[in-house]
């Protein structure tokens, strides 16, 4: 581990964030100006994507050092990026699959948060099962004509761009015949409709309707009919972010519970089990990440996502239950519980994760 890099990163955080950030970080999560400024400064200083090249917000560090820095940042509650899927999912896809022109035009703005992106994946009736999508894109000369609908599209009403996954070969197998297109959400025929949310702290979801939308053929990201690979490889970069955040969220939720001197037996048992699960998340996450760096298959991740998200939910519920009636007047505990409800949905629902574990890890036969 590069201890000098961690020391430099901590010194950067001390300079970039307010003096009282560490004790008031919960309040600062509503400070959008601070979060936007932090992203730009982290990019300029090379801490946003530390394993990447300097021109893309990095320092050419090793993958292991990048993981260590992400863990350190999560433990210190660094500001959450306003458009987290931009740097977390879209930027890796652009860096890996983008043409020189696409990278020159789009990569720096998404990393600095100057242009926001949405992910056009989920559809009504498809959810986390990307292979079952039905949105169609037909190549007509120098452009695609797209028709269909996306749902649960985070921040689509605020975003300028979208990585849109559509079926370009209708007769191909489920995982084939899908392409990734760069969609300008200001295009004619795009109708974005926000969906109501349960709390202000939750990112806004949208429905996106596509009616004969024309997308230039030059906006194809990756190979034609090769969108499945683009999706899988770009989402891999989200893996570490998910398990690290789940682990930190569990630890943060348990800390005040464990400090209570009068915790009854039932709550102590629940807390003890969650402590064990938190340790399992950490060690499984490290094993999964190191295995991926070594180039070996990492089936542990599918178990890790399921365990991490459900443990984060249970920890948030325990933090709400332990204080008793006083919890009813704590906005922080309520918001943490509401936010935890999304943990078993984003990044792959628990239902889909169980199917994947059964089919890919345990090699169980599919129910036809």
Keywords:
about 375 residues; Butyryl-CoA Dehydrogenase, subunit A, domain 2; Butyryl-CoA Dehydrogenase, subunit A, domain 3; 3 domains; four-stranded antiparallel sheet
Provide an overview of this structure:
This protein has helices at 3-16, 21-28, 32-45, 63-75, 85-97, 100-112, 227-258, 265-293, 300-321, 331-340, 350-361; strands at 117-120, 136-140, 143-150, 161-167, 178-184, 190-195, 205-216, 220-221. Helices cover 49% and strands 14% of the residues. It has 368 residues and is α+β, with helices and mostly antiparallel strands. β2 and β3 form a beta hairpin. The longest helix is centred in the middle third of the chain and has 32 residues, at 227-258. The mean pLDDT is 90. The protein has 3 domains: 3-82, no CATH class; 117-225, Beta Barrel (Butyryl-CoA Dehydrogenase, subunit A, domain 2), CATH 2.40.110; 229-361, Butyryl-CoA Dehydrogenase, subunit A, domain 3, CATH 1.20.140.10. A 4-stranded mixed β-sheet has the order 1-4-5-8. A 4-stranded antiparallel β-sheet has the order 2-3-7-6, with no helix packed on it. The protein is built from 11 helices and 8 strands.
